[in-house]
Each structure stands twice: as structure tokens, then as C-alpha cells.
Amino acid sequence: MDKPLSHRPRKRFGQHFLHDPGIIQRIVDTVDASEGERVVEIGPGLGAITQRLLRRTGSLDAVELDRDLIPRLTATCAGLGELRIHQADALEFDFCALAAAPEKLRIVGNLPYNVSTPLLFRLVEQRHCIQDMHFMLQKEVVERIAASPGSKRYGRLTIMLAIYFEAEPLFHIGPGAFNPPPRVDSAFLRLAPHPVTPLAPADPLHFANLVRQAFSFRRKTLRNALAGFATPAQLEQLGIDPGDRPERLAPGDFVRVANLAPDRPE
């Protein structure tokens, strides 16, 4: 039996606490964590998921920004297993410090909508120590992550994740599953690093800068959107039409452009 939860959600932290027992159980069953695995929960809140994960794993790390939640979380999870709470901003947290090679992390979280995208980019940087990730996100963000080239949702987030992770949207979560109910629908998503990156950027920072610029000018043609990164002649040599727009290129195409040279062309 889960222990009762109570706390006034704070708008400045983007807090929407999951309370639907059916959704909570579905999430825990989907993650399917087992004893001995190093599981990390981002934003455990009042411990709705934390309690059930602890019963399965016996041990859990939790990263929580709101220091006022920590005593409640500790009390809620007392006697269920070893809970190590890190009072920190997940945007600045060193997740890999929790993993001792060859151990990798399984990360779970109900991500605040206002920081979900920068946090995903932060986790991309630490992908080498991650086994998989399961997140509740705004449904629109999940649609952007899973978008196909040419669609309106396709963009920088899609590409930066697709190069390193396989994305699998799992199920919809309605506003009523949370307290307070958000004004948008949510979805549950699995991200797992590719065993071998299909086409790896030679210089990840150069690649990231290229993708950022391309989608800052997504309505321009590639000859303009990629100015300073590739010439029209270079694009044509790769079989890419300089007259296309950035949203038409597959993730691997951006890698091929970025790998033309480690430095920007003259």
C-alpha cells in the first residue's frame, strides 16, 4: 500500500504531481526495473513512482530541486529501500557521477514542461553512462522527438536525439492523472542509446552548432541556412539539394554535412 501524498504544488518549479494509481503502476511496469540496477529518478516529487520503484529495486537515487519536498519524500519512502536523495538542479547535475563503469544508469522522470528540452540536451551530453530513459513529457514534445523529416514537428530536438537515441512513444497520459491538472496532454516516452551510433558526428559540438543554425533559419533554403558550414557545391557533392529546406533532411544528412571538415569551410 502506497503512503498518502500531500504537498502544495509550486508553480515556479512547474510541479504537477502524478496521482493516478493506474498510470503510476503502468509506468513502473513499463520501466521494469529490477534489483541491482542503478535507477535514477528526476523530480520524484511526493514519491508516487519512487515508492513502487524502491519496492522493486531496493535502491534508488533521486534528484529533487525543491528542498521542502525532501523530508516528505524521506518519510514517504521510509522502510522501502535505500533512497539516496540529491538536492540539486537536474540541469546542472552530473548524472554519470552516480555510475561506476561498466554500470549504466536507468533514468526515470516526470519532467517539468518548462525545462524538458534543455534537460534532454543535457542528458545527450551524458549518454555514455545511460542504459535507457523513461520520461513523462508534454505530448507535443514527444511528437517533436518522434517526428519524421518534412513534418511540422520535425526540428533540432528530433535530430539531436535521433542521432544518439532510439525514441519510442509508449502511451498517452491525460491531465486528470496529475495534481494540479496541466493545461496540456502528456505522453510517456522511452529513449535508448543506439548500441552503435549509425553515423557519428566527428565533432559533436560542431554538429550541434550546425543543427542549431539550420533550424534558426528553417524557412530558408539550405544554401542560406547552412551558410558558413557548407557551400552549395559541397551539398551537391553529398547528393543534397541546396534549394531544399532544413526540415527535409534526415538526421544522418546533417551528420554528413557536419563531417565535411572539422572546421567551417572557407
List keywords for this structure.
266 residues; 9 strands; Rossmann fold; alpha/beta; 10 helices
Description:
- The protein is an alpha/beta fold and 266 residues long.
- It has two domains: 183 residues, 3-Layer(aba) Sandwich (Rossmann fold); 55 residues, Helicase, Ruva Protein, domain 3 (Orthogonal Bundle).
- It contains ten helices and nine strands.
- The strands form two sheets. A seven-stranded mixed β-sheet has the order 4-3-2-5-6-9-7. The protein has a two-stranded antiparallel ribbon with strand order 1-8.
- Strand 2, helix 2 and strand 3 form a beta-alpha-beta unit.
- Helix 1 runs parallel beside helix 2.
- The protein is elongated.
